[in-house]
Write a structure and sequence with these properties.
alpha+beta; 16% helix; single chain; globular; four-stranded mixed beta sheet; 90 residues; 30% strand; 4 strands
Length: 90
């Protein structure tokens, strides 16, 4: 199966006035299987919640990042991992 991906960085704080128009474009004009988006709020009037995973950044920001598929249901999974986070200071 071939998958078509689209990516979108909305820069919510500087493009908020175009948010509705942009969601309309991404949901009605483009042909993709999976949309990866960041720095935006999902428009829940347009998007099917079963096909969406989105998380808010938090603190004073209400926008965040997510994954949307118009064709497939999406579910968020938490998993245990042993990755080591290294912070480099210099």
């Amino acid at each position: 199966m071939k998958l078509r991906f689209a990516t979108w960085n909305m820069a919510n704080w500087s493009h908020i006035k175009y948010e509705i128009e942009a969601w309309e474009y991404y949901t009605k004009e483009l042909d993709y299987n999976v949309l990866l988006f960041q720095e935006v709020n999902p428009n829940l009037k347009i998007l099917n919640k079963a096909k969406l995973v989105w998380n808010e950044i938090g603190e004073e920001r209400s926008w965040g990042s997510g994954i949307y598929s118009p064709k497939h249901n999406i579910k968020e999974y938490a998993f245990k991992n042993n990755w080591l986070l290294i912070r480099i200071c210099g």
